[in-house]
Amino acid sequence: MASEEESAVKEPLDLIRLSLDERIYVKLRSDRELRGKLHAYDQHLNMILGDVEEVITTVEIDDETYEEILRSTKRTIPFLFVRGDGVILVSPPLRTA
Amino acid sequence: MANNPSQLLPLELIDRCIGSKIWVIMKGDKELVGPLRGFDVYVNMVLEDVTECEITAEGRRITKLDQILLNGNNIAILNRHFMCKLKKMRLHEKDIREELKS
Amino acid sequence: MSGGGEKGSMTTKTPADFLKSIKGRPVVVKLNSGVDYRGILACLDGYMNIAMEQTEEYVNGQLKNKYGDAFIRGNNVLYISTSKRTLADGA
């Protein structure tokens, strides 16, 4: 019973609590995405992530054809503090019951 | 201010709109129209049978929504919806914007 | 009973009432950026932080992503809507 209570999602932040020490996906403002292991977080959604892969997507306009070109830049960061106000969405890994 | 009986508080004005159609202009190119069901002190609002109008790169997009909770954060102007059809609204807003600029 | 259909007798429905009535139901969450999220509303809090299940991400009406669970930070939320919805593009 106790473990059932622990894993219950009563408020949205519980979803984050249940993702501690798991790899999560974070969507940030200005077309940035992160994937990394969640070490810690607070109520503002400030987060400490480890082994992070960051993907930045930029749109460029081709000078001649005026086509939009999506370009994504990847980099890895061993340890990262994310300030909560930039966060749009957090998705935990798929949980198994 | 509080002891002036003729003074109508802003939130009282909104309270009088409950049950009638209200026209909401958001910051940015977005407007919503629908009957107001309720609101709170942040002017988050519950609206019904909403018509949403937004200006996108591809043109104007109209969305119908059943019942919504609108975040009060980005609301610019509220207007009781008397006479204007959605088509005309743009003109009104343009006028309002120009007035604000001058 | 949360009578959703009665339009004649217009009773007040505060944001809190609305939030209570939509838990566990399919919803559309629109962000200020214009992105839509459709899914089942698991729960939410006073900041409009939202937890959703079976979430689909739509950009310009096109499905872009799916998430099993998703947490949406409340400051980005423009509105939360019950899910019955039609789209008509105007000129």
Characterize the structure shown.
Chain A is mainly beta. Chain A has one domain (12-91): Roll (SH3 type barrels). Chain A has two helices and five strands, in the order H-H-E-E-E-E-E. Chain A has a five-stranded antiparallel sheet with strand order 4-3-2-1-5, with no helix packed on it. In chain A, a hairpin with a 6-residue loop joins strand 3 and strand 4. The longest helix of chain A has 6 residues, at 12-17. Chain A is elongated, with a radius of gyration of 17 Å. The two termini of chain A are 14 Å apart. Chain B is an alpha+beta fold. In chain B, a hairpin with a 3-residue loop joins strand 1 and strand 2. The longest helix of chain B is centred in the C-terminal third of the chain and has 16 residues, at 86-101. Chain C has a five-stranded antiparallel sheet, with no helix packed on it. The radius of gyration of chain C is 14 Å and the shape is globular. Chain C has a domain at 24-82: SH3 type barrels. By secondary structure, chain C is mainly β. The B-C interface holds B 18-19, 26, 28, 30, 35, 37-40, 44-46, 48, 50, 54, 56, 58-71, 73-74 and C 4, 7, 10-19, 28, 32, 34, 48, 60, 75, 77-91.
